[in-house]
Amino acid sequence: MKLTTRLIDIEHRGVLLHSADAREISVRGGDRVEVKNRVTGESISAFVDTTASLIDPGVIGVYRPTQVQIDVLEAAEVEVRAADRPTTLDYIKKKMDGGRLTKDETYAIIKDVVADVLSPSELTAYIISTYINPLDMDEVEYLTRAMVDTGERLHFPSYPIVDKHSIGGVPGNKITLLIVPIVAAAGLKIPKTSSRAITGAGGTADLMEVLAPVEFSAAEVQQMTERVGAVIVWGGATNIAPADDRFITIEYPFKIDARGQMLASVMAKKFAVGANVVAIDIPVGEHTKVPTIEEGRKLAREFIELGERLGMRVECALTYGESLVGHTIGPRLEVREALSVLEGANEPNSLIQKSLSIAGIILEMSGKAAPGEGYRVAGEILESGRAYEKMRQIIEVQGGDPDVKAADILPGQFSYVVKAPGNGYVIELNNRALISIARAAGAPQDAGAGIFIHAKKGTQVEAGEPIFTVYADRQWRLQKALEEGRRLMPIVVEGMLLDRLPGRHWGGGGSYGE
Ligand SMILES: O=P(O)(O)OC[C@H]1O[C@H](OP(=O)(O)O)[C@H](O)[C@@H]1O
Ligand SMILES: O=c1cc[nH]c(=O)[nH]1
Q1: For the Pyrimidine nucleoside phosphorylase C-terminal domain, which residue ranges apply (predicted)?
Q2: Range 186-195 burial, b when 16+ CB lie within 10 A, else e
Q3: Based on the domain organization, do 193 and 335 belong to the same domain?
Q4: pLDDT number for residue 107
Q5: 167 and 300 both lie in a single domain
Q6: Beta strand spans in 118-202 (E)
Q7: N or C: which end of the chain has fewer CB within 10 A?
Q8: 198 and 257 share a domain?
Q9: Domain for residue 51, yes or no?
């Protein structure tokens, strides 16, 4: 059917058809059509929306990404017909049914993901199929290579190129903001790409964005790394392993991180930047992605094996994940804490120890420190101020203000202090619940939103002492966070009253919102 274009400024790879035209070519909303530019002869497939009133019969609304792809102008003539269903849907169905994907099938899926051929529900089906029917090691390798080969790669003239990655899952894990400048200050190159939050309330890219822009092309990442030795950027903007961010967008609302997907996501980013020395942080703890040491060891072996298959030296660190790292959760609060350590603060201990341990592993692996000396050398670099100076260079090269101080970075203006309901020890500090509260407060999109924990697990508190403060950039978000807190009860103080269920005529009282 011939239709006349009307350009519509909507960021979605689709077209808008009048319902009568849609009936005529036998498609419904959500189906695909093939749209052919009659001048260039080029065809693309696009998703269909239908309307009975917004456009007239004979007209096709063309959304912006589709306009760019097919290169049409306003009032041009295009040929439209029902499109074939992508064969990759059969491969996804195979995985949903517990089958094993071949290399060709995996590549076909990832090419469709990157070309935006799959709808969000089809993409979700793929992610969930791998969540329920885990990928084996061959499938993970195919996926990793496909993610790398469908994007750009960095090629540095000399080695080593080092990198680190955390599988996440523990709140407050701001260690990259310390490790990257320490390692770069030792003279190593570390082109660090990170994701935004996946299961948490602030991924490293969300944090770094408080200090400087994080969206760069692959070529810019390479140039900046060559200039100052390091960057901390958002992988989703780089076209390095571009499928990764599409997957993370699907995983984020479910707070899931499918194991095979996670292995491929992490290692594809390392492989694509040309890293040959890699340290992986695997936080282990009850409310994290890896609940037991045994599972942590198994995952570590998988990372190491995948590294061997790709020609990278990988070492994994199983780290303490029972409790948050440092005292803060949420972009601005976390950056303030990390920057204060770079400026010379000698606490929080958990943040400093974890960062120095992993930086030390990288220094030892790359020959910058003798075996067993990495932690000490990393500590010297931090204490000497060289890591802080390097962080200033990284912030500057990415276009931020290198003179920013920790004290300048303020949390959200709305806050609420949750106090101990009685005397005792903090015996429970639930990571997942804290993340849910921080997200309800607006993190990571609202950079000032988050939580400051005053009393971590094991701390002795007296009735009325602050346990944590919730911050938000908007009042209604603070209320939402407090409601979430009342529902989830993230902290238990030994001996405290967990709940009161009042009879019809009595109001109840808790420790939130009093
Ligand atoms: O949201 P959750 O699942 O905790 O983890 C995601 C975070 O963990 C990794 O950190 P890094 O890049 O090693 O600093 C990711 O890149 C991301 O920032
Ligand atoms: O980058 C990351 C980190 C954890 N999990 C992922 O899937 N990707």
Answers
A1: 425-492
A2: bebbbbbbbb
A3: yes
A4: 98
A5: yes
A6: 162-166, 190-194
A7: C
A8: yes
A9: yes
Domain with residue 272: its CATH number is: 3.40.1030.10
What mean pLDDT is predicted for residues 255-273? 95
Question: Which of 162, 170, 173, 261, when mutated, tests ligand 1's pocket best, judged by the most ligand atoms within 8 Å of its CB?
Answer: 173
473 given a catalytic annotation = no
169 lines ligand 1 (CB under 6 A): yes
Is residue 511, in this structure, part of any structural domain at all?
no
Q: What is the pLDDT of residues 379-401, one digit of tens each?
A: 999 999 999 999 999 999 999 99
Q: Is the distance from the beta carbon of residue 50 to the nearest atom of ligand 2 less than 6 Å?
A: no
Same domain, yes or no: 292 and 371? yes
Query: What range defines the domain where residue 15 resides?
Result: 2-82
Given ligand 2 and candidates 144, 257, 289, which is best to mutate, with the most ligand atoms within 8 Å of its CB?
A: 257
Peptide bond into 160 cis (omega under 30): yes
Q: Dihedral of the CA atoms 281, 400, 207, 403 (nearest 10)?
A: 90
265 within ligand 2 shell (Cβ under 6 A): yes
Q: Same domain, yes or no, for 272 and 167? A: yes
Predicted structure pTM score: 0.90
Catalytic residue, chosen from 21, 49, 257, 446, is 257
- CATH (domain of 65): 2.40.40.20
Atom of ligand 2 nearest to the CA of 269: 1
Rg, Å, the chain Cα set: 25
* Ligand lying nearest the CA atom of residue 266: 2
Is the domain of 115 the same as that of 68?
no
Percentage of the chain exceeding pLDDT 70: 97
pLDDT at residue number 255: 87
> Quick one: what percent of the chain has pLDDT higher than 90?
88
- pLDDT score of 245 more than 50: yes
230/391 Cα distance (integer angstroms): 9
Dump pLDDT digits (tens) for 163-204. Answer: 999 999 999 999 999 999 999 999 999 999 999 999 999 999
Domain count, the chain: 4
Reported confidence tier of residue 429, pLDDT bands at 50, 70, 90: confident
268 and 233: one domain? yes
405 is in an annotated binding site: no
Same domain (yes/no): 242, 261:
yes
pLDDT band at 513 (very low <50, low <70, confident <90, very high): very low
Neighbours of 399 (CB within 10 A): 11
